[in-house]
Amino acid sequence: MIRVEVRAGNEVCSMPVSSTYGYQEATGEATMRASESDPTIAESNTVALMLTGKAPNAGIVSVHLFDASSGVELKRIEKLEVSIVI
Question: What is the pTM assigned to this prediction?
């Protein structure tokens, strides 16, 4: 199981809403499964996130991937520019 978050500084400003497969609506977590052609590689799983009111209208955010069981951060993408226009 994995969890994906968008953060503005240390503040979580997103909530997961779906994934390609294995989305758990109660927890917001998603499963990962091994590729059929190569069991050492995980199959792609796109997770859709909705930004919350805590997200900046403009600024810099980061995206974090966690192991949902242990809470260990597996990957981080930093310095993503966000600009929300309605």
Answer: 0.91
